Amino acid sequence: MIISVSGLRGIAGEDLTDELIFKYTHAFGNFCNNGKVVVGRDTRPSGEMVKRSCFKGLLSAGCEVVDLGILPTPSILFSTKELRADGGISITASHNPIEWNGLKFVNSKGLFLNKKEYEKFERMVKETKVFPVCLKATKSIGKPIDRHIKKILSLEYLDIPALKKRRFKVIIDTCNGAGYEIGPKLLQKLGCEVIRMNCNPFEPFPRPPEPNLENLMALKRRVIKENADVGFGLDPDGDRLAVCSKKDFPLGEEYTVVLAASLILGKKKGCVVTNLSTTKLIDDVATEKGASVIRTRVGEANVVEAILKNKAIIGGEGNGGVILPDVHLTRDASTGMALILQYILERRESIENILDKFPKYYIVKKKISIKTDRVLRLGRLKEKFGGAEINEEDGLKFSWKDSWVHIRKSGTEPIMRIIAEAKTEKEAQSLIKQVQSYLNLAPRD
Ligand code: MG
Q1: Which of the residues are catalytic?
Q2: Residue 445 has pLDDT above 50, yes or no
């Protein structure tokens, strides 16, 4: 069971029990001043059960509960603001395996709780005694995906008539997740010929749910077979997006935010916000347009906070998360797809050619299981990489001119992440190996 600023995550029924969900959601109802709370979920088999536990907690706190049904996380955040709710809950374990589930908590602005809000909420969880009060009924309002689509289609950056004329052939693989409806519907509105892959919310996840290119080999084969313009792979709660082409390119899902930012930076002046673990390619793209890149700790809430503070025009994370403030301050695969199609349209060349023209970097991402009692003493690495620029905001990041390595503890799983990027794959692998052997860590995969 993982309890963090990202919310709760665990195996449904085992760690994530009815009792625990009740306790947290009752306290969350109080945190939202016992007002209106919207609740949506992804397609996991435990989703309906977890949802009922949430309803119990919220109703017992006197909240007005709005049931949004199966809905991507970005649409839930968008709707929390649109429906003027006092809070929201997204029931999902994002890219974790199907037996997991979790709760992500949203404030009245439609943003994930920031650290300060989360600390207040945690105190309330500890202190709150359950007093069931004025039970209200649960309301169902259908799925608010049309408003979300309308907002995306209203973006000044998109040339809808030209997109319709271009009629892109697109394959979308939603992992049978919550994006199964909004994804294809949006693509159709953008004039695409849409081929649906894994868009059945009643079927189990057909592949490992993390949208990285290793897990999207079937999508790639389909893109080749159908001679499609592009393939889009989503995670089960529809916030992360990977762009799949007919050829392999070394940065995988890291290209998503780079492509989206390339479009926006060409149209508007302003800065980009991304996390410390995202590809250097984003710096190259921004420098070319005379824009700056602001780096934050890993995690959507950190990126969003910096976007607000710096009035950035676009942001996101290298894991496939595009955040466009003009739509809503959250990672959104739907927004990402629209921006990337517009970018391909304007470049008047294939996605393969576009990716091929970017400077080449290789990124290697490693996960290491760690025992909770193990003291890692990361600080020792500073002796090893003495000549590097050091950033200590989130774990440790060592940067050189054309390469970097970032070592940090995951906020959502009991693992250590080591990510390295360099001009060659060998160099990136070597950085990872040096860290592993220096810290005496055995690889998990
Ligand atoms: Mg996700």
Answers
A1: 94
A2: no
